[in-house]
Amino acid sequence: xxxxxxxxxxxxxxxxxxxxxxxxxxxxxxxxxxxxxxxxxxxxxxxxxxxxxxxxxxxxxxxxxxxxxxxxxxxxxxxxxxxxxxxxxxxxxxxxxxxxxxxxxxxxxxxxxxxxxxxxxxxxxxxxxxxxxxxxxxxxxxxxxxxxxxxxxxxxxxxxxxxxxxxxxxxxxxxxxxxxxxxxxxxxxxxxxxxxx
Amino acid sequence: xxxxxxxxxxxxxxxxxxxxxxxxxxxxxxxxxxxxxxxxxxxxxxxxxxxxxxxxxxxxxxxxxxxxxxxxxxxxxxxxxxxxxxxxxxxxxxxxxxxxxxxxxxxxxxxxxxxxxxxxxxxxxxxxxxxxxxxxxxxxxxxxxxxxxxxxxxxxxxxxxxxxxxxxxxxxxxxxxxxxxxxxxxxxxxxxxxxxxxxxxxxxxxxxxxxxxxxxxxxxxxxxxxxxxxxxxxxxxxxxxxxxxxxxxxxxxxxxxxxxxxxxxxxxxxxxxxxxxxxxxxxxxxxxxxxxxxxxxxxxxxxxxxxxxxxxxxxxxxxxxxxxxxxxxxxxxxxxxxxxxxxxxxxxxxxxxxxxxxxxxxxxxxxxxxxxxxxxxxxxxxxxxxxxxxxxxxxxxxxxxxxxxxxxxxxxxxxxxxxxxxxxxxxxxxxxxxxxxxxxxxxxxxxxxxxxxxxxxxxxxxxxxxxxxxxxxxxxxxxxxxxxxxxxxxxxxxxxxxxxxxxxxxxxxxxxxxxxxxxxxxxxxxxxxxxxxxxxxxxxxxxxxxxxxxxxxxxxxxxxxxxxxxxxxxxxxxxxxxxxxxxxxxx
Lengths: 197, 587
Ligand code: SF4
Ligand code: SF4
Description:
The structure holds two protein chains of two kinds. In chain A, strand 4 (71-76), helix 2 and strand 5 form a beta-alpha-beta unit. Chain A is 38% helix and 22% strand. In chain A, strands 2-3-1-4-5-6 form a six-stranded mixed β-sheet, sandwiched between helices. Chain A is built from eight helices and six strands. In chain A, helix 1 crosses helix 7 (163-173) and helix 6 packs across helix 8. In chain B, strands 3-2-4-5-7-6-12 form a seven-stranded mixed β-sheet, sandwiched between helices. Chain B has a five-stranded parallel β-sheet with strand order 14-15-16-18-17, with helices on both faces. Chain B is globular, with a radius of gyration of 27 Å. At the A-B interface, helix 1, strand 2, helix 2, strand 5 and helix 3 of A face strand 8, helix 10, helix 13 and strand 20 of B. The complex binds iron/sulfur cluster (SF4) (2 copies). One iron/sulfur cluster is lined by residues 340-341, 526, 544, 546-547, 563, 568-574 of chain B. Residues 340-341, 526, 544, 546-547, 563, 568-574 of chain B line the site of one iron/sulfur cluster.
């Protein structure tokens, strides 16, 4: 195994299940036999602030954070946050994003507008761009709140990790009562991994 | 052997378990909080929240003197609070091993300053270990307990946010089972630090540091890695990872013990490389000591004293090329905000309306300084709001005095605020104190405290009666209010602010995040009746994240308010702001 590190970023808004998605991803990578490091900042980000989680894997990982401009995959749970984190992604990197807008305080209060044309801007810089209706697919799986697992499914197609490890990781990390919905959501996301909106 | 992905904090808890630790005590504080939330999962460890860091350390000291291994954890600023016992503990030494974790926060992700607590190790003359990933967090915790007993000293373990909150692979071990049973042994000469005894101990403290520095030369945790010897870098903690990432060919001296420094090893390493650097976050702690050895070294000339490092910052410092990045757009910011239905919102709204000068404190309510509430004027440290209100009142005019209000949460009040209130009464201050009792330590993720009625181990316990407590401190005017009732909140505040004596107002609604049954109860979501909404924007002034302004879409400034039924908790505050009766309980 050469020491090629795969750098994945999961970004969005506090409360969207980003940390759980990052846990499942790390666990799958561990099961597949890689070294893995994961990093995020808790604390202030809890109350609706921006969240960025870094997951890096390979034969040996040093820094727990992805250096700017070296991300391979940016995995966005919310459009504006996806756009905010683009500088972390390498040229030619992949963006997988949820087609969801969550207004920040200044927009809620009507002081600023939610930016227009985000998806076009992303596509312009990063042609390898997959846009998913995570909420819709999650509803199909049985719970809107499983959108994070849908996205994970979509991302899983781009990674060299066997399906069995993903499913084992979900079993380990997701609470029992939500397990079936999450597995279904993952597989829906995985099979939709080719089509874009 | 079992492998798991653990955060640095989870790994420290595991290390304590494996080391046979019996007592763990802390006051929660980001980024250290999760250590105790994990020790509590090991039934062999008696875990508890203390009202503040000084008490937490004293509990750990007692456990150690009684012969058990004890862990005490806190965030960097917590050590300021615990510094008093720490400096003397350095003199008494320990009986059972004692490890004090300081979780520093370079970049101030959730802190009010960026202090570098390596200075405390030097100042208090105690050894300090610094792990560089989760596996080391576990191993160094075990080692710290052993060194503590071997050298008769407390040992500090320093993490930084990136170590506390990042996860990596850890191999689990077994719990040590060969430790002596704790029992009481009297030894006044060692444990009673009066001048006569302390004078005898001080030379031992100095000798211990010299011995540790010598031992450091052969400790496996201080590791020389020789690669290309044209560049040699001394580093520790997460900075080691950044260096390996950014300069994979450079030789490194990775220090696992950052105080005392292994001087002989540093000399040897310096002699083996052509050019020597120190890469460290915040203060030139290692650099200055290396320079004092008479060794030429480059450090802070290249790397700022401020903020967290990253592989990118190191590349820039060493003049290496950076990968090209996509231009960042200027987007609306997304700062944290108080939750929908937070009981603090109404109080800050009222304080804003009354144009109060609010001395603030540390907790979720610190967010009350942000627009649109904009109702906090100071925030310094835990418990400071009350003392500061007294101080401000001492210098301003009689008229302005009436504007001064201190706000403080239940946990913060019990942490160090209570002393300020004693002083306020004792010295006849006329300020008003609002105790925002939401029955939990909310900011750090809802930890129990003496005002919540439960312990960390989930046993029911006495719940502090704030009115009674304040009464016993001598406060004559105590009012309990419902912070969701804006009229009551505002009128009680106005009355008490006008009063030329100390008064305390206590709010009695719980934090929306309290999960314990029967505490926080979500009501039906509210709705905006579109036909009645005139678009006056009054309801936006409370900044509830559940209320959204929807523009009319015709390019004009017009629009209407909308309430997100999934977010709204039905707290009723916005309804009271609408003059047109457009907001009401949904079906
Ligand atoms: S966590 Fe509790 S105290 Fe903090 S903002 Fe939310 S409701 Fe308020
Ligand atoms: S009732 Fe109004 S203020 Fe309270 S949570 Fe709902 S929208 Fe927010």
